[in-house]
Amino acid sequence: MTKLNGEIYQFVYTSSSTERLDCFLVSCLDRITRSRIQVLIRGGFVSVNQKVTVKTGYSLTKGDKVSILIPPVQEVHLQPETIPVNIIFENDHVIVVDKPAGLVVHPSVGHNSHTLVNALLSHIIVSDSWTEIHKPGIVHRLDKDTSGLILVAKDSASQLWLQRQFADRKLEKVYLALVDGHPPTPTGRIQAPIFRDPYHRKRMAIASPGKGRDAVTEYFTLKRYKEHAYLKVRPLTGRTHQIRVHLASIQCPVVGDQLYGRKTPSLPINRYFLHAHSIRIVLPGEDQPREFTAELPDELKELLHTLSESPEES
């Protein structure tokens, strides 16, 4: 084992039989749990033979050189903050929030405060153990510049319940998006695996067959404009940046998305035109699904209105 800069570890796989990447790293780094190793792999912190892989079950063969970057652990001191949040629904187990664009969901590098989690801590009473992790209650996320519905668990049992609903895909989510250009067909299904871009850690990308994580997105054209299309989008899986990557892959990037689309937005907007409009899910302790909706924010309605003079209906 070679240790570089106190954070990067390098190993050579010497066995003549194959082994899963995550299992191998657990055996090499006995102080780090397998779940933590898997998070680091999926986050793009592990490479095999100098190529980033996000497959936790990647099969190693003799001679493979494995590198892992382990970010320094930061102490978490979550503090309640008085930040206005629009609560759509609340009971003893969960809170459903209509998140505004510009608000980060949970603390992360560069965002240690002023997050949705900090805002909710001023609203609910939780145990000390719940605040000792970076993402208390968070079971799914929205990008900073995406608005709309997000569910937050109020206790660990509810968090586990919701995580299982998401993992088993026992829910339905609908987004609204305005995109540049027009999709190849009014209604479509994009099925393309996604992985971490090996050349740009902040980006995701479409992977070649057999690589990356399966991802499926359905879209339905609600209105067609001269240079844009207004879509209803249903992600059937939940990969990082999935909707944005998939729509960009059919030459229809989300308006305002400078990472996957135009460097200069085609319309006057300082966020993505992407909104988590509805979610249908069975809540903890219940046996029938509930459906929640969040209306399109005023600034997005106004932007649509500027295009409404001469739309070409699909």
If you had to describe this structure to a student in words, what would you say it looks like?
There is one protein chain. The N terminus is likely disordered. The protein folds into 3 domains: 68 residues, Roll (Structural Genomics Hypothetical 15.5 Kd Protein In mrcA-pckA Intergenic Region, Chain A), CATH 3.10.290.10; 82 residues, 2-Layer Sandwich (Pseudouridine synthase), CATH 3.30.2350; 117 residues, Pseudouridine synthase. A hairpin with a 3-residue loop joins strand 1 and strand 2. It is of the alpha+beta class. Helix 1 crosses helix 2. The strands form 4 sheets. Strands 8, 9, 10, 11, 12, 15, 16, 17 and 18 form a 9-stranded mixed beta sheet that branches. It is built from 6 helices and 18 strands.
List the helices and strands and how they pair.
Blueprint: E1 2-4, E2 8-12, E3 19-20, H1 21-28, H2 34-42, E4 46-48, E5 51-52, E6 59-60, E7 65-69, E8 86-90, E9 94-99, H3 116-121, E10 147-153, H4 156-167, E11 171-180, E12 187-191, E13 194-196, E14 204-206, E15 216-224, E16 228-235, H5 242-249, E17 274-281, E18 290-293, H6 298-306
Parallel strand pairs: 10-17
Antiparallel strand pairs: 1-2, 2-7, 3-6, 4-5, 4-7, 8-9, 9-10, 11-16, 11-17, 12-15, 13-14, 15-16, 17-18
Tags for this model:
nine-stranded mixed beta sheet; alpha+beta; Pseudouridine synthase; 17% helix; Structural Genomics Hypothetical 15.5 Kd Protein In mrcA-pckA Intergenic Region, Chain A; 314 residues; disordered N terminus; 18 strands; globular; 29% strand; five-stranded antiparallel beta sheet; 3 domains
